[in-house]
Write a structure and sequence with these properties.
265 residues; alpha+beta; 13-stranded mixed sheet; 20% helix; Carbonic anhydrase; metal-binding; CA_dom_sf
């Protein structure tokens, strides 16, 4: 009987210790899971490769970059490799404040073709100030239009913005602001995205990555050379709804080539 009681006591102690250890592991993994990238402090972009273990953030073909105009290579194709197939009434699905940016998701349907491949429009979001720089100049705002193919490859079109007069399209986007962090607003309204692009559609292209974790590489980038114009108030309204300076610094170009595609001249 004494032996049985002793065994029970040992079993209880082992179970308690095991449970305690298990709880510690759960707590550790919980804390580890809660460690998430941001734009400031110990989880800022310079630490993304450390805290996002299974990401490409430490890769050799990362974005954004500083584009030096005189170092770009002129296009060799006679025809523009980019064909924007947006409808005049693109369907805007919802607006989201994901804690990193203001994002507008689109309903399925619109697409672009790039070098013969089709990429479907997913969403657009904003970085303030810009992530890409041209000849070292950082613009007040950058817009990313994110597209994805059926084979899960990405193509992102980047539109830079400078301050000046009001933009009707921006007035439409900002009519859904303010929006609290982690909040989603349903929209389901049409809009004409063609008014978002600059008049001169010459663009730089290069192979890079997503500019936020997991920093997936093999992304086709097209950065329009000419910025669009929006008002100071529109920039400030977006800024007040996003983290301060939600941009990643320029990444090394390494052995990549930036092409200047000129089809307007």
């Amino acid at each position: 009987m004494l032996k049985f009681i002793t065994l029970c006591a040992i079993f209880t102690l082992i179970s308690f210790t095991s449970c305690k250890s298990s709880n510690k592991e759960k707590e550790f993994h919980k804390k580890e899971h809660q460690t998430h990238w941001t734009y400031a402090g110990e989880t800022a972009p310079e630490h993304w490769a450390e805290i996002e273990k299974n990401s490409d953030c430490g890769g050799k073909k990362q974005s954004p970059i500083n584009i030096i105009d005189v170092d770009t290579k002129p296009q060799v194709e006679k025809e523009n490799p980019l064909n924007i197939l947006y409808s005049p009434s693109t369907k805007l699905k919802q607006a989201i404040n994901n804690g990193h940016s203001i994002q507008f998701d689109f309903e399925t349907g619109d697409s672009i073709q790039y070098k013969g491949n089709t990429y479907f429009l997913l969403q657009l979001h904003f970085h303030e100030p810009s992530e890409h720089t041209i000849n070292g100049v950082r613009f007040p705002l950058e817009i990313h239009l994110v597209h994805k193919s059926k084979s899960n490859k990405y193509t992102v079109m980047s539109i830079l913005a400078k301050e000046g007069t009001k933009s009707q399209l921006f007035e439409f986007f900002e009519s859904f602001l303010p929006i609290k962090e982690k909040e989603t607003k349903e929209i389901h309204k049409p809009l004409d995205l063609s008014t978002l692009f600059p008049e001169n559609t010459n663009f730089y292209s290069y192979g890079g990555s997503l500019t936020t974790p997991p920093c997936t590489e093999s992304v086709n980038w097209m950065v329009f050379k000419e910025p669009i114009i929006i008002s100071v108030d529109e920039v400030l309204k977006l800024k007040s709804n996003m983290p301060k300076d939600n941009y990643r610094n320029e990444q090394p170009l390494n052995d990549r080539v930036v092409t200047l595609n000129k089809y307007n001249e």
